[in-house]
Amino acid sequence: EAEARENERNAVLSAFYEYTNTLLCTEARMAGIRSYFATRGIKAEMLPNLAVGVYPSIEQVEVWCEVHGVAPELRDILMPSSRSKGAAAIVENSIAFFYGSSYDTFSRIKVRNVMNESASKNTGDPEKETMWLGKGKASDNGFFLPIASGAYNDYALAVEGEFDALGLFSLCLQQTTDAK
Q1: Could you give the CA distance from residue 79 to residue 82 in angstroms, rounded to a whole number?
Q2: 8-state DSSP, 31
């Protein structure tokens, strides 16, 4: 029974990944976010291969859940735990990073609103606006999956943040594509 729930959860997260990744890659209104990826060294043509998307709005996600028949008990994995205006401001049009419990199983989504970030008065570094969707413990988060499925190879490389991993895998995918 636990395995069946995990499979259903992964199916919802996988379908939501496809939806949000398509929005990121194709919607004209997401051009600013694609440009942000480019400033981080990630080319737009690599985005369909990476485990990222864009979170549209809470209302659009609710409609998506209805249209796709997502069971009510699974909808919370796609929503902020708070429905306040502050939470909505963070998640709307944020980058969605898909985390996994294995290379083929999504476990949780972390959003980051890079378009609303401002420089810290103390360091000049951006004050990151991030939020985990759904309810869960930190141990439920898993690890960031830079590519949408499977392992790139048998080696591991530890990096600090999501964009470090995305940049590296984007470069590897680009070289693979260029070699073909």
Answers
A1: 8
A2: H
